Automatic annotation (TrEMBL), chains A, B, C, D:
PROSITE patterns: HTH_GNTR (PS50949). GO terms for molecular function: DNA binding; DNA-binding transcription factor activity. Pfam families: GntR. Coiled coil: none annotated. It comes from Paenibacillus radicis. SUPFAM superfamilies: Winged helix' DNA-binding domain (SSF46785). The lineage of its organism: Bacteria, Bacillati, Bacillota, Bacilli, Bacillales. This is GntR family transcriptional regulator.
Amino acid sequence: MTMEFDNNQPIYLQIMNHMKRQIIVGKLKPGDKIDSVRELAAELQINPNTIQRTFQELEREGIVETRRGLGRYVTSEESTIMSIKKEMAGELLDRFVIGMRELGFESKDIITIVSEAVSEKDKKGSE
Amino acid sequence: MTMEFDNNQPIYLQIMNHMKRQIIVGKLKPGDKIDSVRELAAELQINPNTIQRTFQELEREGIVETRRGLGRYVTSEESTIMSIKKEMAGELLDRFVIGMRELGFESKDIITIVSEAVSEKDKKGSE
Amino acid sequence: MTMEFDNNQPIYLQIMNHMKRQIIVGKLKPGDKIDSVRELAAELQINPNTIQRTFQELEREGIVETRRGLGRYVTSEESTIMSIKKEMAGELLDRFVIGMRELGFESKDIITIVSEAVSEKDKKGSE
Amino acid sequence: MTMEFDNNQPIYLQIMNHMKRQIIVGKLKPGDKIDSVRELAAELQINPNTIQRTFQELEREGIVETRRGLGRYVTSEESTIMSIKKEMAGELLDRFVIGMRELGFESKDIITIVSEAVSEKDKKGSE
DNA sequence: GTGGTCTAGACCACT
DNA sequence: GTGGTCTAGACCACG
């Protein structure tokens, strides 16, 4: 795994979100074993303490489990994964819609803008 | 003016965005005089230095101008205001669309979700 | 007279330099009467206190004289005017040469750069 | 590092320019770690907040980068450094040439004056 | 009255 | 350890 980091957000949060997305999208499946702190730290060239913090938070959210002596695993609870997905999507949606309204855009404007944005992307992708 | 502050973002940024929105939406018009540092500080119960920081950044973005000894004014360049509006909307849009795609949503899903969200809000508003 | 003001320098200084230049270049001649504080203030849309300050400083430098009840006049001492010109040129020169050396430019570089700059201007002027 | 401060310019600007020059001249190389806020503050006997302000501005110009929790570094983008050098030299040049013309000097005068000034300095330097 | 700068000292998040 | 933010209070130049 390689990642580019944005200095405006804590690294542990960036890694955390990255892993959550991998799980949601299915690149990491329920029950999969996760790289150890040391491995990930070496791979990403990041301080192990930062990775530790990442896992701590993932565990707090119940998306990762530690099995003593065996390592860390993606939770087997698919419901947890689904609810995390909804939560992340909901946050994205809220921030976007609220933000647009604060800028004075109305419902129809917002839908138009999004429609154009995603269809444009589709075009580019198929070129 | 009154404001509620969110602890997760620097106060100066929150005030900054608040003022940018007021200007974009037209509550503050091009050329309008802006509350002085001391006035705003008193009004919001915030340290004047924090307000100073806010204005510093707004000035850097060209949305506010200082006239020596007289105070600060909203820029008269309407084009600047429009481009800031576009920039802010573009950021919101990008973060949303990219984020949703990273979660595995496809174009049609994204449009559906947004449509539902904004129409739901409209219903509530008209109740 | 009209002037554009730069917000990064005190207005009184800008007017002051402007008048010094007019005198040096000969647009205002030794012994000429100078606009009154009120006139200048109205013309430039500037606070009279600021104009007052301008004249105060010009007087301190001996380049302007007050004749009680008659108004203010450009000094008749041509030597004063010449020495002001040398002083201003010297300051410009020093700031430039010292600055360029601090940036690592050597003597021959500096001469080359200036030569190019002024000859380029000459070309433009004759177009 | 030691510095003498000039009361006519904000300290943070003086330090800023000083560091820009060090980087341009190569005393600080691309990628080098920069003294921490606290270190520099102690060294220069200046309040840490003032140093903070200095770095804030340097970062805005893209000549310095912050790596979270690790400290600040000179940008690795040599092109950024070069363009800053050109910008600073251009400003010096403009202010000088424009200023001299405003005083009535013509192209050949300007070149002569600069040539004399720099050659005189060379003589002194070799004494 | 206005903004700009500086100091002193504190707290926090991040690595 | 690092930088980022905030407060409190002071002084200055400018108009």
